[in-house]
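Now for our target.
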Amino acid sequence: MSDAYLYAAARTPFGRFNGALAGVRPDDLAATALTGLLAKAPGLDRAAIGDVVWGNANGAGEDNRNVGRMAVLLAGLPVSVPATTVNRLCGSGLDAAIIASRTLESGDADVVVAGGVESMTRAPWVLPKPDRAFPAHDVTAVSTTLGWRLVNPAMPNEWTVSLGESNELLQERFSLPRERQDEFAARSHRLAARAWDDGFYDDLVLATDGLTRDECVRSDTGPGRLAALKPSFRPDGTITAGNASPLSDGASAVLLGTEAAADRIGLAPVARIAGRGVHAVEPQTFGFAPVEAAEQALRRAGIGWGDVGAVELNEAFAVQSLACVDAWGIDPEIVNTRGGAIALGHPLGASGGRLLGTLAKVLRERRQRWGVAAICIGVGQALAVVLENVTGEVSRG
């Protein structure tokens, strides 16, 4: 079997809900990320791309009918390039990369593009079809932006609580006070702002519809300012709009290939996908699921936490991120060193590609060999990937 390698990564800026990217269709966002990624490999024959695997959590509006294939067509790739769209909710983009890596390892292709997109602004309202023609009763339009909708009554009530309530339950379970959550959120903004100012994201992020930087980053946000926000889910709760990831719009993409495909791609690989993990728990405890998913990925890579020099953990909520970091027993300073989703944004299907692209670059800059990307997923799941830096830029100290 061949190993799967990451050759390049690109993404759009992540726009805030009803913000700068609100007028951009999700299929156009996807095409922008795909086009920008492939511009990094100008020598690659586009017809040599064996497949495109795209993540998308909603698929209820303009991203319907296989948005991955729409991106291929809108980006002007040869019509012979196939594409599929996968839905594992928040983990869709990372799942796309995992599926792509297995495709490479099995020998079914030498070059695969993976990515994901979400426009949470443009996610439509939906109406259930009536049981019979011309019903006399009212019908409620349901937003598809986030969370449960049209819930099956056979589901236990405790499974279908809101994402916010799920994390309030997690806070109670692990006694993670609001002050600590706000400090974590402020750190995310501080590190994201610094990373942008230092130019870290300049070669990863593509200017899109006039937006050049992630729109939700606030360099002036601190624990004091966050402490003034009201709880969002319980009157006496700890979770606020400031210590949770914002609704966002954006797309990301990664170029994956076998080692033998380097000449065809025209680039040297930067990271090897060394381990993968998937784990499931009760739906209301989804925020803690990355703990075991990462442990699985590490075991499959043949390493332990002591070998890991960088972690990209999607910050759905500060409380679940803290719970995971505490459970892993790792140094918090190696986690999300260039900011996380609380500051950067979390366009559901796009976050997995962001994690991988950022992690690969952080490993190179910090001269670390091993890194972990992990993400929690609504309805009780999580995914994780271990990357190995193969550029030779690794500290021996």
In short: The first strand starts at residue 5 and ends at 11. The radius of gyration is 20 Å.
